[in-house]
Each structure stands twice: as C-alpha cells, then as structure tokens.
Amino acid sequence: MSGEGDVKVAIRRLYKIFGPNPKTMMRHVEGGMCKTDLLEQYNHVLGLQDINVDIRAGEITVIMGLSGSGKSTLIRHLNRLIDPTAGEVLVDGENVLDYGDARLAKLRQNTMSMVFQKFALFPHQTVLANAGMSRRVRGERAEIADTEGRRWLSRVGLDGYEDHYPGQLSGGMQQRVGIARALSSDSEIMLMDEAFSALDPLIRTDMQDLLLELQRELHKTIVFITHDLDEALKIADHLVILKDGTIVQQGEPQEILLQPNDPYIVDFISDINRARVLRVRSVMEVTDRAGEGVAGEVEADTNLERVIALSGGDTNLNYRVMEDGRQVGLLHMRDLVRALVPVEAASEDRRVA
Amino acid sequence: MATYDGLFETLGLETWCGGGATDGPMTMAELLARANGSQAAEGADPSVPLMQTPFPSLDALNRSCAAIPRSRDMTEAVENGFLSVKDPLKTVLDPLTQPLSWMLDLSLELFQDIPWFIMIPLLVAATWFASRRIGVTLFVLVSFLFMAFIDYYDDAIRTLSIIFVCTIVSIVLGIPIGIAMSRSNALQRTVIPILDILQTLPTFVYLIPLIYLFSVTESKIYGIAIILYAVVPVIRLTDLGIRLVDRDVIEAADAFGMSQRQKLWGVQIPLALPNIMAGVNQTIMMSLAMVVIASLISAPGLGVKVLAGIRNLELGVGFVAGFCIVLLAVLLDRSTKAALSRIDASVRS
Ligand SMILES: Nc1ncnc2c1ncn2[C@@H]1O[C@H](COP(=O)(O)OP(=O)(O)O)[C@@H](O)[C@H]1O
Ligand SMILES: [Mg+2]
Predict the structure, then answer these.
(1) Whole-angstrom Cα distance, residue B277 to residue B177?
(2) pTM metric for this prediction
C-alpha cells in the first residue's frame, strides 16, 4: 500500500504495434517512422508510442484524446488485457509484464477493477449478483459478496434494485451497478474507460458528481478515460493528452490550459468556458505581501467565474487569496481577464520546457 | 478391334497391355448381355461413328489394353480396401460403441415396460414442467391418447425411446466438442467441413459402411447412424453460441480476473444457452427424421410401419404411421421450443 501522492502505477517507454509482426516493426518505429508510414509501408498499426506516465496514488489521472487516439489500448495495458510490444508497467514497483497467469489473476481480482463504456454487466445475473461478482470471483463466501454488493449498491443510490436484472435498468443506473461492481472489489486502483460517454449529458453530470463525491471519501487511484475536455477538466488531478498514440502534453489541467505546448491542444481548448474551469490559484501572484487597495478575500480554489461575479466586472480590483485561513497570494483582476483569452498558437515565452 | 487400340499402338505399350480384355468379375449388365448371347457390350465394331466415340474411361480403355482395370475392378478394390481395415476398425469401435447398444436396449425395455397409464401422465407432466404452457401440454396428452387408441402407441413409444437416448448421447458428445471448437480457430476449421459432410451426405450413404462394420442385430448400428446425423446442430450451435457472447462481457470477466473455468460456466455457457438449446431442438428433430430411415437397418418403431407400408403396399398403414410421425415431430418441436423460450426469457430479461 502506497501513501497518497506516491507513484502507484508507472508506465515506462510503452509501445504497442498491432499486426502480424509487431516485434520486427519496433526497429522502424524506433528509427522514427510515423504512424501513417508504418501503416502504408508495412500494414501495421502503431497503437501506442513511447508512453511514459506516472499515476499517483489517491489521484484521478485522466487520459484524454479523440476517438482512435489509443486511450482504450493504453488503459488495457495496466491490467494486461492487452500486452505491449515493448516497455514496462510498474504497479507498486513490480513489473506486471513479469507476472504469470496466477499472479496476473490476483492483480485483476484484488488490485485493479474496471468500469466499461458499455457497462458490460452480466445480463443473466441480478444486479446484486453483478455487484458482488468481484468478490465471488476470488472465492469469497456468498454472504460476503452479497453484503458488499448491497453496501455499494446502496452507496451509488440503487437501494431496492438488488433483484432486478441489468436489462431492466436505464443506462445511468446500469453504470452505477458497474461502479458498485468495481468498488466492491475494494481494489486500490480503478480503471474507467469512457465510463460516462454512453450516458445522456444530464446523467453524465450526475455520475461525475457521484464519482468526485466517492473519491473524496475513498481516495482511490483512478485512471479515467474520456474524449470530453469538460469532463476531463472537471475531474482530473493529472491530465494526459493523447494523440495518434503519443502523449502531446501531460500535467496539471490548469497548467495545460494556461500553457498549452502544442497547436493541437490550443485547438482543443479553444472552445471551453475558461472562466468556469480556471481557478484563482492558477492566475494569482504568489506572495504574502499584503498589497494595497484589496477589495476582499477569495479562496484559492474558487473559479474565475465566481470572482468576476464578485467584482461586478471591475478590472481594477485586487483580492487577497486565502487557503486554510492563510494568505497564499494576491489576485489582480487584470491578470484574471488576461487568462480568459485563449492562448493563440503557443508563443515561445509561454511554452513549457 | 476397339476404339483406343490405335492410341496404345502409337504409344508402343502393346506388350505392357498384353492384348485384349481379360476375364474377371463382371457387372450385372455384362452378365445379362452374355446370357442373352449378344456380344454387343464388347463394342468391337471398328467403324464406330465419330459422334459415338466413347469417353476414354476405364472400361473403354480396358477393351484395348487389358492392363488397365475396369470400373468394376476399381469398386472391388475399394471394397477390399474397406474389408481389410474392417477388422482392426471393428476391434477398436466395437467395445467403444458397446455402451450405446446397452443404453438403447435398456431404454427400449424401460419405455415398453412402463404401462401406458403411467407413461402417458409422465410424458404430460414432463412437458408441463419444461414448457409451462397449457396448450402444448394438452396437445401432448391428446396425441398420445389418439395414438394409443389406434394401436400405434407401442411403435411411437419405441421411436421416442430411441430419440431419447440418441439425443442425450448427442448432447453429451456435442456440447464439449462445440466448446472446444469455440476456443480454437484451428479446431473449428477442421471440424466444420466434417460437420458439413455429415449434414449433406444423403442419409442412406451412412448406412453402407455401418452395415459392413456392425451386425444388424445390434442396436448400436442404428444408434450410430442417428447420432452421426443428429449431433451436428448441437455442435454447431454450441460453438456459435459461445462465439456470439458479447465481447464486452467477456472482457469484463477477464478484467475481474475470472479463470477460464469460471468464465465458461459462469458467463459463456449461460449466455450461449438459448443457442445451445436451439441446437438441442434441431438435434431432436433430426433424430426423429433419421430414426424413420434407420428402420432399414432394424431400428424399431414407427419407421417399421412405414417400411411395411412401402414393402407390402399397405397404403393405410404407411399413411397412419406417417401421420403419427408428424404428430411426434410437432409435439417434440413445440415442447422444446416452449422450454427454449423460457430459457431465453430468463437470460435476456
Ligand atoms: N486489435 C487491433 N488491431 C489493429 N488495430 C487496432 C486494434 N485495436 C486498436 N487498434 C487501433 O489502435 C488505435 C487506437 O484504438 P483505441 O485504443 O481503441 O482508441 P480510443 O479508445 O482512443 O478510441 C486505432 O487506430 C485502432 O484502429
Ligand atoms: Mg475507446
């Protein structure tokens, strides 16, 4: 068991090539051949290329990218539903690629659970049996499976649906069962592959809130996949942006918003409501200087939209930024307004190293 | 002088051929021709018109060159080949298939020994528990009362007993084969052509090697014929059913660390069950079709009556027996389909 913030899962120099002869293709890929050339000349699909990610304990790591960018492929390497062509996946420092069948089964039963885009519940079993499935798989008694199943169903708001079958529930409810199934395994790591993408927008928001609420309490290590930037920004502690099987940028979401290092990302983030996503912490001046003419105090985690409302649109004001009752900085409204303008194609001085 | 004499002369093979046609086993046609005193079959007329030039077949070539075997020699070689492997084959197959004879005989005795006033309620009750449909259950009751009333009950029950045993054996053999096929593409590729052959071969063709291999007095001879024919759909649909199970569900089973066995029994078989049961339904129907034909090789039951109708030109017997077969077919089909839809409902609810 690792402490919060430690690296829980480390992905190191991971490559995945689809096709009949992936190993021999590694030569070309390491020689710098790109995805389209590999497909045209050798008819192999370059799924993932030189992926390095540190997934920290207790955080939500979001992997975002357009459809076909390799997100599902990447997340399936963590529990080895897909084996890589090259590279390592270290869980608590152990390379899971060295695992034999028995050890791998243990990893999947105890350490990692998974939530799927299309729910993937067992249609022939009741909701309760589905929720307790992860317990029953590892040979625990039926009473334990049922108790745990019932507990987590209730936690995701499905009291009274125990004896229904998945087919009788709406999509949102089915995914709640999917989450209960993952949670009842009590695993430290939870993998979520576009878990909310198949849901209606309103229900999706509900589910995101549910996830954040559960996470505040459970502090799981979550790997969450999405193609929706708003969703990513809402829940990510660490954001990884994937394009054509390579990572274009990763880091704190606010940082990526303020300092995108690739035109692709600039494009991607040009449409979002920055005032709602950006937080005071990201645009303030870090200082404990008292400052003159301070109009009031704001919390570091407040989003800019709230501050704009507070200021009544006056760009000459300054606010004292507080966290845990201490001043952590000063917010100048002028900086705030500047941060609202989407970054044009990243200029040199704003680009991160 | 025959048509292809010239050919062998130009090739310089006359010495190898050693002259004209030889004696040997003759076909019925040749024997008849000889008995009638005509030599027409020799076709020795040198002035064969061009339009009647025979195909250079075994027989035609033999007339010019004795070293070339005739068609009848060829079939005889096949026969001898078969006869030479028959004994080793028999020593292997005989003990292996012996239990089938026992099962068929035992079941036949059992079905016949249970008096009608117990058997008919038993069948009706079984239908009810499998289907839970009043209509089907009533139909079974009325059908059996009718057949009993017209004195065809005994034959019908014999037919039913054979179907019962052959279906069980087909399921016991077919489902594991189907499961194995669903797991290995290589196995699937080898088994499917065999299944195709078993299914497309005219049913009579099965009977020929069986008659050579086994004695007609043993029950297993018709048991094997029926099972070879009827096992096909249950194999096919087990394989198909398991392969059709939703990939996402299988992936979920893998992601939670299910073992192969847990996955098979907990996910694949339950979800493939509607398809497997559809296979069982077809297996039953094909057993019924074959049990009638197998009366040619001593299978008892309604088929014997149909056969009697053909042999003795007893039109009425044949018709009524045929009608009883239709009744059996409909009631077997309806009751298994009703049971099937119940399973369907529980899997997909
Ligand atoms: N089994 C496979 N064989 C060949 N190509 C594959 C296979 N699985 C995925 N790919 C390819 O890899 C790329 C990434 O796919 P995927 O990980 O499913 O993307 P995403 O989940 O981001 O939509 C796609 O171009 C896809 O066509
Ligand atoms: Mg995907």
Answers:
(1) 15
(2) 0.83
